[in-house]
Amino acid sequence: MNPVKALEDHGQAIWLDFLARGFVARGDLKKLMDTDGVKGVTSNPSIFEKAIGSSDEYDGAIGSALKQDDRPVAELFEHLAVEDIQQAADVLRPVYDHLKGEDGFVSLEVSPYLAMDTKGTIAEAERLWKDVHRENLMVKVPATPEGLPAIQHLIGEGISINITLLFSQKVYVQVAEAYLAGLEKYVASGGDPSHVASVASFFVSRIDSAVDKQLDEKIARANDPGEKERLAALKGKIAIANAKLAYQEYRRLFSGARWDRLAAKGAKPQRLLWASTGTKNKDYSDVLYVEELIGPNTVNTVPPATLDAFRDHGKPRDSLEENIEDARHVLAELERSGISLDAITAELVKDGVKLFADAADKLYGAVAHKRATVLGAGIDRQELALSAGIVKAIEKSTEEWRASAKIRRLWQKDNSVWTGDDEHKWLGWLDSAAKADIADYEDYAQRVKGQHFTDAVVLGMGGSSLGPEVLAETFPKKAGFPKLHVLDSTDPAQVRAMERAVDLAKTLFIVSSKSGGTTEPNVMKDYFFARVAETIGAEKAGHRFIAVTDPGSSLEKVATRQGFARIFHGDPSIGGRYSVLSPFGLVPAATAGIDIRALIKHTLAMLRSCGPDVPPHENPGVQLGLAMGLAGLEGRDKVTILSSKKISDFGAWAEQLIAESTGKDGKGLIPIDGEPLGDAALYGKDRFFIDLRTEGESDAAHDDMLAALEKAGHPVVRIVMKSIEHIGQEFFRFEMATAVAGAILGINPFNQPDVEAAKIKTRELTAAFEKSGALPAEMPVMSSVEADLYTDDRNAADLRKAGADGDLGSWLKAHFARTGADDYVALLAYIERDAAHIGALRNMRLAVRDKRHVATCAEFGPRFLHSTGQAYKGGPDSGVFLQITSDDARDLPVPGQKASFGVIKAAQARGDFDVLTERGRRALRVHLKGDLEAGLKALDSAIRYALN
Predict the structure, then answer these.
(1) What is the pLDDT, as a whole number, of residue 758?
(2) What integer is the mean pLDDT of 362-389?
(3) Residue of 140, 646, 667, 813 with catalytic role
(4) Helix, coil or strand: residue 14
(5) What's the angle, vertex CA 332, arms to CA 331 and CA 333, rounded to 5?
(6) d(CA 405, CA 816)
(7) Which residues contact 826 (CB under 8 A, 6 or more apart)?
(8) Is 140 a catalytic residue?
(9) Which range (345-349, 376-380, 414-418, 760-764) has the least confidence?
(10) DSSP calls for 860-883
């Protein structure tokens, strides 16, 4: 007779520790049921990983599932697993029915990531039970301290449970007690216990592997031959002895008055199931853990190889209750040898959880890879061309992130991923896109369209303006919707230029400020509210204004008082620079008629690719973040962003995100935006290049220069977007990458400790103006007809030592001479930001880069104070700063204030400069007199003279 089939005569059921879609579909499971009497199937992450990752048999199912709708990797796997479990359960259902629910089960495991989470385990088990919807399902729950209360709760709900990772007799008793208590609760609530089944999966071979290792160490140290022999005699005996004594506990627990009361109601005993029965030591019989553990009302779940071996040469006998006293003696001898079985089994539970989690990482990695393959261009491509040293560092860090579950912990808002500070309070951006009320945005957009506005102007700073600016610059004007503009300056000429560009009677203003207390949007609102009131009447002015602000802010109060058309609330757990996929970006997008539904849909594809269930090696946001952070630690901290024509403004948003997030505590990455690409010879070893473009945009000369940079050993990241509609994917990718880079750098990427310093200085200066009618006097270190120069005493002394004397050129020469190989030069201009001035600064920065071979920044104030200003003050001391101010040709009053726009801008410039010098930065301010255009030309000439 078939030895496997013969186990039925001994009261033992054989289950198969294996499952795959084709195996069931081809009828192989049914064949084993017929020939071997197989009565159940168990699965785990390792089994599914081999089935899905090592073959193409699931590719069609993955493609079909994603054709219906994209979904997170864990959900995609669960969809596949539920189908497999249902199919196997249906094949086994005749066994279940024939044995009246005694057998015929299929087991599906809750995520091993939940092994230490009671509530999470309960929720997932309940969901799996509902989704599989088969009476002959057992949900697998680990016998961890957190798993035990979940087991009792789930049994109490009438859910059949397979308890896994059970090694210890003591814990087995706790498991059985949890089953009994759960049954009693279920019966008390009117449930029929005859429909509830459970097995306690007692692991075997892993115990011998762990014990034998310690025995071998003791044998090697022992000098007495008798002691060596005694210790050697224990090898390969402990696991079976442990299991036999557990079975004795089973007999005790499932007898007596307590059990009889449950049995009378139809309850079934919780069978012991021998797991991990494949032999790991080649010196032992390959059927050892089957032959020695045969007894009534038990289960042995075997891998296919062990099943084949037992069929071939197994010898069934009633072995489970043989030599019980010998089993006790063996365990006593082990204890006498100084080896703690309790310690070993406790460690095996930890190892088991880790092994299953490792297997789940592999499994989800395989599913993530297949998902990305199926979606293809639906997810923007990312290619990293890095040096061997950085690649090695990324590989090491990727494994460290995987092993320590950092991406899952990040999504769980665990601040220990970073510095353990308040990071957990600032992670609302992770799911802001998923939470977007698309229907409300669409309704709002139609209302805007119905008003026939010609223009819409965002009044905001930093995160409230830069994301909307990318949208305004990237998407063409949509018919029937207003043209979107952004104003983020206190420069009088720039405010006037915006007023000239729009029709005030037909313009919608979006006042955007998280705190509501930011100076710039408030004075801009005051100005334009007054101008609109003059144009269409005070009683109608509020109808032309929308507020986007956090709940309870001062802006909300003002908006309510002034009758704004609508107030959108931001999420207080999202910092400004991470807010583009929240109302701060989505309200302007909807106002301009951008398709919010499509934007969010494409964004969610990247969010899922960067999700908690996507291991670091398959996670594009994590990989980019690791590359940025680790390259930064190697000295390549100038993140140079190259954006193609269609998405040319993306870098302005990304530079704020990177600079304000990472530039602090003397560390950080310095983003370089808007610097045209040059020959490889112009760059030092501090560069890290990120090239973004849309599919179809080609520039052969640009590609040749990129290839040359790569060949010269510079890190180059290439990102190709399918279209501009995918811009949300890049917003999220960069947010995730920046958060990860922050963890690598060891900083809190969500605070901005140095931004407030300049605001305080500005408030002090404007307060002084309100009192006296003038800003405090200051003394230039050099004065000429065309310009005055200002700096602090320390900088002035250093520059004079370096040759600065009576003219502008000599001071600039001494200033630029202070740049070293890994420094950067930042031009900080408090002037109108227009095409001509952008071009003028670009010419100056290129002259510096090409002569000094250093990275360059060209920024406009006060805009950059809410962007890169944090890194300039709090980041590495590698900046050489030239602040540019000028006389305003025509100032502009702010309604209700003594300080004008020009005065506020001047106070901001001086406050910013004071903080730079207080922080010991190499800083010089040039104040251009008279005509600005002439002054910029003179400055350009002086810079070129200084560089030569």
Answers:
(1) 85
(2) 96
(3) 140
(4) strand
(5) 90
(6) 46
(7) 856, 857, 858, 859, 868, 872, 879, 880, 881, 882
(8) yes
(9) 760-764
(10) ETTGGGGTTHHHHHHS-S-EEEEE
